[in-house]
Q: What sequence folds into this?
C-alpha cells in the first residue's frame, strides 16, 4: 500500500485542495498491489511456521543457493524440492543449518522428523521401495509445514496381510497420503478400509504399459472407494501439502 | 462373529472335551467375517447420520426402488446418485419422504439444504452454468453426509472480477470443491487465492479438444497452485464426499 | 484330402503309367487343405464336448438363426455370444432346446450350469453388480466348454472383508477369472492372495477417466501381483475360454 | 502365530482364571499376522522348489547383493530380474553358485536349463532375434519355477513356413508364451493353430508408431484367436510365471 | 485458357499495336486457371474410363441425386461412396442405369463386376464377414476405375489353413488390398507370403481395446512384412483406389 | 462503484468526522466489484457495436429465448451460437428482427452480411463443403462483431489450382480464417502463400483415424508455415472472433 | 522470369517467324517459377526489414554458419532459432555483428531490444521462470521482425495479484503472447481480462501428467476466454511471429 | 523336399513292399518345409537382383559384420538398414566393395545410384532437409532393389512454388514416395497433383505436438487426396521397398 501517497492526497482533500472526483479517480486507478491485498500478496508466506518453497527443477545451482539463502534470512522454515546433491551441498555452504535429503531430493531448513512412536496427523503409506523417494517427499513436506507424520512403507496389495497388519498405525490419521506406482491399487484398498480423506499420489514406477505413471493415475482417479482424490504423477510435494492442509483444518477455526 | 459356535467350542475346551490344538486350529480357520471385523464390515454404514449410497447408473428402476426402500428402513439418510426421473418417481412411491433432484440426478432421504446465509464448512464453486449438475451433485452429497455447504456459481476465470467478488463467501470454508469444464483453470486460480484444501472436479463440458473432460482433468492435475487434488471427470459425488471427509476431520478427535 | 484322386494317381504310378517325377510334382502342388490338415481345419470343432462358437455382433438375426441351426445339427454344444433378445428368440424357434441368457447376451445349446455346491475348476470372481454381464459371459463360456465354475460376485476391493470371506470358495480352482471395471484393482488383490493363474477381464464400467475400460485395462496389465494375464475389455468370452483351456490342461495328457 | 500367548490364555481360561468374554475379545483383536495366515504371509515362498524373486530395477547393486545373499541362505532357488552385469558380478562374489544371464538380465540360483530334446511343459515362442531378451527372461523364469521349457526362436509371421515347420515342437506344451514386438501378429497365428493357453508378451521392439510396444499390446489384446491372454510390455518374467502356474495345474490336485 | 483474349493480344502485338512489355505484363498476371493447367484442373476427370467420385457422407439426399445426375450426363462411370439406401433410390429415380450396393454403401454407374473365374489385377482379401462392407467398397472402387478384381473372403489368421488354401487365387495380382479389423494381423501374414504391393485397410471391427480401429491401424503400420502400406480406418475406397493406381502402372507407359 | 457510500464517507472525512485510518481501511476492504473495474466487469459488453454472445449448447430453448430477449433490449447486436432450429424459432417469436442461420447454427440480431464484391478485412477460407457449417459460424461471428468478410469455399489442397485461382480474393485481408478437416493441410498451404495472420480452425470432418478432428488439430499445430495459430476443433466462433480482434487492431489506436 | 527467352520468342513471333500456336504452347508450358511469381518465390524475404530465418535444430554447426553468413550478405536482419552455444560462436566468427542469445537459443543480426519504458505493440507475458526461454524466443522474434515488445515475466495464476498489478503494462498492446506450462491457465485469465488477440504458447514445463506440454496445449485450446489461439508446444518463434504479423496489420494498408 | 526319402518310399510302394495307406499317411505327415515350398522359404531371396536385407538396429557390430559377410558370399546385392558408422566400417573390412551411407544409415553391396538425368520409375520427394536421412533410406532401398530413382528435395508446402516448379521431374514416375515430418501436408498436395500411387512416409521431425511423428502420420492417413497410402514413422526402407514393388509390377507379367 502506497500509504504515504494516498494519505497525502487525503490530507490535501481534507484541506480542500483537491475535490471528491479527484480522490475517487485516484482510488479507482490504484494499481492492484498498491491496495495492500496482503492476503493475496503474502498469503502463503506470512503465516508463522509455514515453509517457503523453492522448486529447483528448472533452476541452476547458483539460483537455488541464492534464493534459499535469502528466504532463510526471513523465515525459519524453508523447503526446496527436486534438488540434486550438488544443490544440497551448495545450500549447506551458505546456510549451514540446512539439511539435504538425498532420497527425497529435498533441502530443508527447520525440519523436525516425527518420532517413530507418534501417531501422526498425516500418514504416508507407500506401496513399494521404488516409491519411497516420492513418499519421503510427501512426508517431509507435511512435517516442515507443521504436521506430524506416520510413515508406513512397503505395504503393496500383492501382500495384503502386510497392509492389514499395519492398518492400526494410520487409521486414525486426519489425512492419508497413499503413494503407489504400477496399477496404484493401494489407494482403493486403503480408501475402502478407512474413513479418512485419502490423497493418492501415482508414481512413474512400472514398465511398459505403465506409460510413465498413467496407469496408476487412471487407476486412482477411477478408485471404487469414496474419499480418494489424486495429485500429479510423482508429485510427493503436492500430496504432502494437501494432506497438511487437511490435517490443519481441525485447529483452523 | 459366529459367537455361539465358538463359545460352545470354548465351553467344550474348558470341559476338557477338546484339546488346545483343536481350538487353535479352529481359530486359525475362522472365516474373516466371522471374526467380527465390524469396523470393516459396516465401517461406512454404522456411523450416526452418515448416508447410505446407491449408485443407480447400472441398475434398473425396480432395483433402485427396492434397494432404496430397504435402506430407508434402517437408515435416516439415504443417497442415490446418477438417478433418472423415472427412478426418482419410483422411489417416492415407496418412500414418500424421499426427494428427487432433477438437475443433480440424485434421490435423497433425510437431506437438509444449507441456508443461503450460512458460512458452510464446505464450499462448492462452479465455473459455468453447464457445470451446475455436477456441482449440485457435490453440494447435496456433502450436505446429506452432514456438512453445511456454501454454493458459489458461475465464477469462471473468463470473468475474473466475479470470482474475486465472491471470494469472501468461501475463503473460510474447510474444504473447497471446484467444479469446472473446458480448461479447468478455475481450480488453479482458486487454489492460488486461498489456503484451504481444494478438491477439483473436472467436467465433460466443452467441445472438440476437450476430449470429454480430459483437458480439464489434465489441467487440474497440473495445477500450478499447491493444495489442489482431483477426482474423476463429472464425479460430483466423489468431490462432495471427499470435501465432507476433510471438513469432518475438525471435530473427529 | 482328395483321397480318391491321389489314390488313383498312386495306383497309376504303381502300374507304371506315371513316373516318380509326376507323383512328386503332384504332391508338391497339392492345395493346403487337400493335405488333410485335420488338426488345423477342424482343430477346434472336432473334439468331443467342445462347443461351436458364433459371434453375433455383426450378424443379422436371420444369419444367427441359420448358423445356429446348422451347427446344432452336427454338434451337441453350441454357443452364440453378443446375442440380443430377438436373436435368442429366433434361435429358439428353430432349436427348441437352445437357451437364451439375457444378462450375458448368450445363446447356448447343451449347457449345464455348475451346481452351487460344486468346487469349480474355474472360478469367476466379479467386482460389482455392473460387471455381472461380462462375468456371466465368462462363466457360461467355461461351463459349455466343459469346466465346472464357481461364481463369486460383488467382492470389489472397496469392501475388502467380503473378498476375504469368500476366498476359501475359489482358492483351489485351477484358473480364476477376475472381472472388474473402474480401476480393476481386484485382479491385483486376488493375484496376491492365491497361487493360481488369474485371467483378468477389464470391463467398460466406470465414468469419465475410465475411458471405456482403459483404466481397468492398464491397471490389470500393470498388476503388482505375478501370474495375472489380461484379455480385451468386456471380453468375458475370452476370459472364460482361456480359463477353461488352463483348467483342461490337468487332464490333457 | 503368537502360539505361546494364545495358548497361555487358553490354559488360564481352562483353569477358570479368565472368562469366555475375555477370550472372545482377545481373539477378535488378534493382529492379522498373528493369526498365522501362513498361506498369505509366506504363500509364495514356502513351497518346495519355488523361487524367491528380486526385482532389481529400482535397487542399488549393494541392495541386490545383500537381498540375494540372504534369500540364498534360506532357499535353494532364487531369481533376480532386470539385473545389469555389475549386479550379476556382485552377487556371484557372495553367492558363487549364482549364475548371471546377460541376455535376459537375470541372476539365478538353482536354475537348470531344460535339455534341447525335452518336450517342455511350457513353450516360449519368439518372433525375432530382437525379442530374445524378453523370451529368455520368460524361459528361465519358468525353468527356475520348476517347469521344463521348449524354446522356439525367430518364427515371426513374415516367414510363415518357419513357424509351421516348428509347430510340432510346441503344440503339446501345456502353456505357450508368445513373445513378439512390432505388430505382435504371432500371438494370433499361434493361437489359431493350437488349442493351448497362450500367454502373449508384447515387446517394445519396433520403430515409430510402435509407440514403445503399444501396437503389439493392442494387437495381442484384440487377437482374433481365442485363448490368448496378455501381460505387460517386455514383461518376460510375468509371461514365464503365468505359464508355469498354468503348467503346474496338471499336477496340483 | 482464355485463348481468345490472349490470341487477340498477340495479334495486336504482331500488328505493332502493343509493345513487348505489355505482352509480358499480361502473361505474368494471367490468373492461374487462365493459363490452362489442364493437367491440374481436370487431371482426374478427363481420362477415359476413369470414374467421377461423390462422397455422400456429408451431403443431403437431394444434393447427392443432383450431383450424380449431372456427372452422369458427362461421364460413363460415376461412383458415390458412403451412400445410404435412400440416396441410392433417389439416384436411381433420375439415373435408371445406376446401381445401389447396399453392403458397400455405394452407388455406381457403368460398373461391371469381375467374373468369378478371372484372375484379377487387383485382389481384395478380407479377414472376416464383419469386414465385408469395407472390402466390397474397395473391390467395387477398383472395378469401376477399370481393374479386374479377385475377391477372397473370410481368411482371417485364426484359421490359417483357409488363407493358405486360397493363396494361389491372388498371389499373381498386381496389388493386394487386405481388409481386417481386430488386430489386423492378416496384412502381415499376406505380406510375408507374397511379393506384391499390399495396401492394408484397417477396419473398426472389434471391441474394447480395438479403440475404433486403432489396434488394427497400428498393427498394420508396424507390420513385420515389407511392402505393406496403410490407408485410413474403414477407408475401402482409398484402398481400392490405390490398388487400381498400382495395377494400372503396368500399362501406363 | 458504490459511489454514494464512498462519497458520503469522504464528505464525513473532509468534515473531520472520521479520521484517515478509517478511510484507508474502508478503501482497502472495498469488494472488488465495488471498485468500479468497469473495464473488467463490462469490458466485453459496453463497447459500441460489439455483440453479446450466448452459448446455447447447454441451455434449454426457454433459457435461450429469455436470455436473447433480455440482451436484445439493451444491445443492437446479439449472437447466439450452437443453436438448433427450435431455439431459432423460439427467439424469433420474441425478437422478430432476429435471424436464424441453419447451416451455422447461429441466431443473430443486427447482423449484416458482407457484399460479395467487398474485399473483407477478414477472409474465411474453407477446404470442403463438409466444413461449411464451421466456416459460416466463423464468418457470421466476424461480421456481427463488425468486420467485413470474404468467403472462399471449397479450395482444399487436393485440387490446388482452385486455391491458387482464388488467392487474389483474400491475400489482402488482415486476418485469414482457414477451416479444414481431415488432415488440415490447407492451413499450411495458405500460410505459405500469404503474409497475413492465419487462424486455423480444425473440423471434426473425416473418418477413422481423423479421431474427431485430432488429425487436423495436430496438423495445424505443426504447420511448417509461420504465422499460423489454432483454435479448438469445430470452434468457428473462436476463429471468427480472433480474426475480428486482429482485423480491428488496425483502427484501435 | 526467363525474360530473354520469352522476349526473343515474341520478337520472332512479331517477325512472323513463329505462329500464334507456337507462342501459346510456349506460354502454357512455362515452368511455374519462370513466370516470375516473385510474390511467392521471395514473398517472405524481399520486404524491407523482415528477417531471414534459419531453423538450426537439424543442421550442423558448419551448415548454420554458412547459411547465416550468406544470408547476412544480402539482408540486414537474420534470425537463427534453436541454436546451441557452439553454433552461436561459429556464426560470430564469420558475422561479428551477430549476437547469440543463450537463454532463447537464438542468433540474431540486426536485432534491437525494445527499451523497458516503451509500450510495445506486442506483449510477451510469461507464467514462470521456467518458461522464460520460450518467452524470450517469442520476444526477440517479434523484435527482429520489427515490432516493439513489452516483456511481463513471472505472473502465473497461482499469484493472481502479480498479474493484476502488471495488467496496465500490456493491455494496450496489439497482440499478446502468453507463454505458460503446467496447466496453461494464464492464457484464459489474460484472455478474460483484455480485448486483444492472444497467442498462447504452451510449454513443456511440468511433470508427470503434463505429458510434455499436452496438458497446457489442451488447456489453451479449450480456453473459456474468446480471442485465444494457440501455437505448438515450446514454439516461441511461432508465437512471436504470429504476434508481429497481427501487430503489423495496423499499418499494413 | 526330402526327395530321397519320399522317392525311396515310392519305389518301395511301386515294388509292392508298402501299401497305399502307408504312402497316404506319410504324405499327410510331411513337415511343412519338407514339402519344398520354395516359393515361401526363399521367396524373397531367390529372385535375381533382389537384395538381401539386414536390420541392424538390434544387433551388435560383430553380428552385422558376420551376417553381411555371409550374405555377400551368395548374393550380389545386400542391404543393411539402421546401421551406424562403426557397423559400416566393420563391414567394409570384410566386404571391401560394400559402401556405407552415413546420412541414410545404410550399408550396401551392389548398389548403383541413378544418374541425375534419368527419369526414375520411383520418385522420392522430400519436404525438408531434416527429412533427408529418411528420404535417402527410401531412395537407396529402391535403387538396390532394382528401380531407378528421381530425388526431389526440399519442396515443402510452405514454399509451394518450389514444388510446382519440380513437378515435371516426377509426375511420370510409376510410384512416388513422399517423405515429410511436421504436419505432413506434402503427401496431400502431391497426391492431389499427380495420378500415381503415392507412398507417404511420415518422419519424426517436428517439435512439441508433433509427438514423434504422430501428427504427420495422422495427417497422411487422413489425406484428402486419393491414392495415398502410408508406412510407419521414419520407415524410409518400407517406403522405398513398397515403391519398388509397385514400379516393378509393370514388367512383372
A:
Amino acid at each position: 500500500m502506497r500509504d504515504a501517497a494516498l494519505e497525502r492526497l487525503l490530507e490535501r482533500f481534507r484541506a480542500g485542495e483537491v475535490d471528491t472526483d479527484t480522490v475517487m479517480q485516484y482510488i479507482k486507478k490504484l494499481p492492484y498491489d498498491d491496495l495492500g491485498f496482503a492476503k493475496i500478496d503474502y498469503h502463503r508466506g506470512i503465516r508463522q511456521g509455514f515453509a517457503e518453497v523453492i522448486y529447483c527443477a528448472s533452476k541452476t545451482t547458483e539460483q537455488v543457493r541464492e534464493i534459499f539463502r535469502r528466504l532463510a534470512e526471513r523465515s525459519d522454515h524453508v523447503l526446496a524440492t527436486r534438488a540434486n546433491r550438488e544443490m544440497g551441498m551448495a545450500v549447506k555452504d551458505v546456510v549451514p543449518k540446512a539439511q539435504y535429503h538425498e532420497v527425497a531430493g529435498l533441502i530443508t531448513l527447520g525440519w523436525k522428523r516425527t518420532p517413530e512412536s507418534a501417531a501422526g496427523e498425516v500418514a504416508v503409506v507407500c506401496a513399494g521401495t521404488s516409491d519411497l523417494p516420492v513418499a519421503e517427499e510427501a512426508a517431509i513436506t507435511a512435517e516442515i509445514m507443521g504436521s506430524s507424520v506416520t510413515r508406513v512403507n512397503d505395504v503393496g496389495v500383492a501382500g495384503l496381510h502386510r497392509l492389514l497388519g499395519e492398518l492400526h498405525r494410520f487409521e486414525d490419521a486426519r489425512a492419508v497420503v497413499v503413494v503407489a506406482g504400477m496399477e496404484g491399487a493401494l489407494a482403493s484398498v486403503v480408501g475402502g478400509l478407512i474413513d479418512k480423506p485419502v490423497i493418492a499420489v501415482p508414481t512413474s514406477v512400472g514398465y511398459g504399459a505403465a506409460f510413465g505413471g498413467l496407469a496408476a493415475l487412471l487407476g486412482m482417479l477411477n478408485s471404487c472407494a469414496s474419499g480418494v482424490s489424486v495429485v500429479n504423477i510423482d508429485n510427493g510435494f503436492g500430496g504432502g501439502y494437501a494432506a497438511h492442509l487437511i490435517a490443519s483444518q481441525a485447529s483452523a477455526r
Observations:
- Confidence is low (pLDDT under 50) at residues 29-49 of chain C.
- The first strand of chain C starts at residue 52 and ends at 55.
